[in-house]
Amino acid sequence: MNSAGAAGSLRARLAARTRGLGPSPIGEAFRTAGDPGVIPLAAGSPAPEALPTAAVTRIAAELARTHPHALQYGDTSGLPELRELLAARHRHGTGRPTATGQVVITHGAQQGLDLICQALVDPGDTVVVDRPAYTGALQVLRLYRADVAAVPIAGDPGLERLTVLVRRRPVKAVHLVPDFANPSGRTLTSGQRAALAALAERYGFLIIEDNPYGELYFTPPAPRPPLSALSGRVITLGSFSKVLFPAARLGHLTAPSELATVFHTLKQAADLGNSALLQHLVLALLREPGLLRGQTARARAVYRERRDLLMDALRVFDGALRWEPPGGGFFLWARLPEHLDARALLAEALTEKVSFVPGTAFYPSAPDHSALRLSYSYAPLDSLREAAGRLHRAYLRLAGR
Ligand code: PMP
């Protein structure tokens, strides 16, 4: 008997929160990135030449012998030495006392988002995201049935819409990527940071400071101050994916001490802890004198060169594509003339064998159809000019229809 027989269809057994789930736009981006011949401006992966391959090879070869515990279960909330190192970094960056117990190692910042939603979001709670927003955050928020409101936070006009919204209705939390955001590339000004922190203090919402790209600035100084320096209502998410390597799947969550125990329990229930082996590996990388500094400096130079090359190559559009030059990170957020739809451009672009992510993926509602995210981080450096040429040919076909 088939599954739709007397016992009913299997999909009818899904929980209400998963019944409407479609394929993920990030999954789509990775699929096209794997297609040989397609130049992948879709995936936000690090550049192969920016990965610490030699250091990882050297340290990994020794690790199981020098650290037998690396093959065991470990502390569910993460390797204590690694958490202490991150707590010290947080103290230094924020000027706030931060105990090791406030830090939880997560499977990437992405798991941090999941744990935060588990901890905070009841169905129907209002959570504000930036407009445009990180797709991975939208995906998790939908799963927990948050009422997601997207308002512009970084860039112009800043916080006006958010201020109106928090005055009108209770907001549980605001998620944002303060530095070189995914997808917009924007960075909050120090004035916007202060205003956002003051709003959180006044109206009681939490801030989810999701910051995987902050170290990847192209011109010093680093964007400052972190929101967690300005308010005690901030949960910070960090990641080793962009500066070290994403296969470590190592992220970290730093919570105000009142909330921290909840995250330890949720992490335990989720997966009993990250791989001890990978945590020892990353700890060894972080402890090696000069390694992180050198690695980060190299990554900044790599991505800056890539950004410059892509922006230069896109001049082939002769003004028909507009963008805001990002000051760091992986992404160029661009706009077609308003009457054109980036999804239609993608269909043309894929026949030209170049991919990107249409802006639609970054809005919970009322998407800007003319926007697109081009990531310059991953495609081979010497393919970026060709990618811009292919994109332009795709655009000419679309516009000429
Ligand atoms: N937040 C943002 C803003 C991101 O861009 C990403 C990576 N795409 C993540 C979180 C997840 O990163 P991780 O690899 O640490 O899970």
Automatic annotation (TrEMBL):
Keywords: Aminotransferase, Pyridoxal phosphate, Transferase. SUPFAM superfamilies: PLP-dependent transferases. Residues 38-391 form the Aminotransferase class I/classII large domain. One of its GO terms (molecular function) is pyridoxal phosphate binding. InterPro entries: Aminotransferase_I/II_large, Class-I_PLP-dep_aminotransf, PyrdxlP-dep_Trfase, PyrdxlP-dep_Trfase_major, PyrdxlP-dep_Trfase_small. Gene3D superfamilies: Aspartate Aminotransferase, domain 1, Type I PLP-dependent aspartate aminotransferase-like (Major domain). Coiled coil: none annotated. GO terms for biological process: alpha-amino acid metabolic process. Its cofactor is pyridoxal 5'-phosphate. Signal peptide: none annotated. CDD domains: AAT_like. This is Aminotransferase. It comes from Streptomyces poonensis.
